[in-house]
């Protein structure tokens, strides 16, 4: 879905850092193995790429502090997948083409691996040698907010509560905004915060943050609609996870509520809105329209034959 | 076990703050209800009391920032109980005299309530209006470290891994130090940090921090040995949880490894060491030996007839 041609070096640094950090902080071999199993399962690193892309968009450097925040983001995302896959939740046995964490290590270790990744994400930012105290507070607090009861955890509860009942598109969008949107919004927000020169964090920069949030919200919703569509049209071999699970679980999805054509139209709309918001910022900071962030938008478009 | 005669006002403020904060940040009623169910289940608030007692020991004020850190500590402790009680872990159905969270709300909500409490603990400190940026970083990072893979989560994995096999007393102490000790150590460490005037955080204060850590480590181990003993000698009615579970699960405990008499002797030793470390600090800061922290130590002593 996403081109990863750029930021190759940074993605390697990210992966190395994740292994180094988790190895350093772990006291139990099976816990480390279980955390690394899911971290190294071949995720697309969409959120880290979005964070790094946003820093780069504003002319910032992908310094070690940025890599560490990207790593924390990926750890939070990975923990959420491990817990979502549990039998009591979505009961998935396949993820990224491999058995899910609890199938491989048992439920107890899977729960604790999730708890560990979630907790270590905060410690990693807090102990960074490459971020200021002010940045750490902003980044840790925002990460908690995006992941917590008003964000990802709340969205997952809404998702479970909505099973077996018909929601409106607005209700579904509210779940998606929290369940997947909040972390995507954080990736863009943190990238903007770290990428914009902070001494210039004045009124016009607050406008930029607002427009970038708008971009992130449309991108996040597009990301989830695309995921909903792929659950219907994609193949298990290509996606590495069970397909048509949403229908089995009677989940509310865009294709279920709007039909496949309607869902695809919504996807196109959200991507257009994301593009427009990004262009607004481009005109403010006077940069060209061929940045990598556009590739991320383009990567979510429906291709012929998909 | 613990006298709560002092800090009554502060404990009321703590409880009110927990409700206010969680209500404000929640978007899903069932999630809020589930989190509050466990938060309000009648816990002894040992960790908050220890934190507030330590701040007070150094002549500090129990200002709203201290209450917020105490609340974050209690949220982390509560999350750990919810997850530990899950069927895949210790499979407990009774806690503080009430059905455990997953019995009441189902496993999915219980897992998410735990995730929510863990995450919100960080947001709560990060958003505090009563702590400096520097304090927030210290407090959030330390909390993550105490709760994470080198601390509580690692200890829980060690505890599970040790079931059905005989450990040495040293191995068991290592599990206890992480599983329950790390958060208790954090309570004392954070209390020392917040209670000691920070402009004076010089060499002698580093010595004080070391001695307080020593106090906390002995107190934490004593706390867990007492818990092990009560699982053998206590009644379900008194403790509000199932007793003699450790034996059923073939858990390593002090009574299992040393017999009841040996466990009681270890408890006495640990309490004596905790008292001695506290007295060392008292001689450094020239204060009397009748502070509330001594009551906390005394409260863990074995009484006749117990």
UniProtKB/TrEMBL annotation, chains A, B:
The keyword Transferase applies. Keywords: Isoprene biosynthesis, Magnesium, Metal-binding, Transferase. It catalyses: isopentenyl diphosphate + (2E)-geranyl diphosphate = (2E,6E)-farnesyl diphosphate + diphosphate. SUPFAM superfamilies: Terpenoid synthases. GO terms for molecular function: (2E,6E)-farnesyl diphosphate synthase activity; metal ion binding. Pfam families: polyprenyl_synt (PF00348). Gene3D superfamilies: Farnesyl Diphosphate Synthase. Its EC number is 2.5.1.10. It comes from the Bacteria. It is an enzyme of class 2 (transferase). This is Farnesyl diphosphate synthase.
């Amino acid at each position: 879905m996403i081109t990863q041609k750029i930021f190759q070096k940074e993605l390697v640094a990210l992966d190395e850092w994740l292994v180094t950090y988790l190895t350093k902080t772990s006291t139990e071999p099976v816990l480390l193995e279980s955390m690394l199993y899911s971290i190294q399962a071949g995720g697309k690193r969409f959120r880290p790429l979005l964070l790094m892309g946003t820093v780069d968009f504003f002319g910032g450097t992908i310094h070690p502090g940025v890599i560490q925040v990207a790593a924390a983001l990926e750890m939070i995302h990975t923990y959420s997948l491990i817990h979502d896959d549990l039998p009591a939740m979505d009961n998935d046995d396949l993820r990224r083409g491999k058995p899910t964490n609890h199938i491989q290590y048992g439920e107890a270790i899977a729960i604790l691996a999730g708890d560990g990744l979630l907790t270590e994400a905060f410690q990693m930012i807090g102990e960074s040698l490459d971020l200021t105290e002010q940045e750490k507070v902003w980044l840790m607090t925002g990460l908690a907010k995006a992941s917590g009861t008003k964000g990802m955890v709340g969205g997952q509860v809404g998702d479970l509560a909505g099973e077996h009942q018909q929601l409106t598109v607005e209700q579904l969008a509210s779940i998606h905004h929290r369940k997947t949107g909040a972390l995507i919004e954080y990736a863009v927000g943190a990238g903007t915060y770290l990428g914009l020169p902070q001494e210039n964090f004045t009124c016009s920069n607050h406008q930029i943050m607002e427009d970038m949030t708008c971009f992130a919200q449309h991108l996040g919703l597009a990301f989830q609609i695309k995921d909903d569509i792929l659950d219907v049209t994609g193949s298990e071999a290509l996606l590495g996870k069970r397909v048509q699970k949403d229908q089995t679980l009677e989940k509310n999805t865009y294709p279920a509520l709007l039909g496949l054509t309607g869902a695809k139209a919504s996807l196109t709309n959200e991507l257009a809105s994301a593009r427009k918001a990004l262009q607004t910022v481009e005109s403010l900071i006077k940069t060209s329209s061929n940045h990598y962030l556009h590739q991320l938008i383009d990567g979510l478009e429906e291709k012929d034959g998909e």
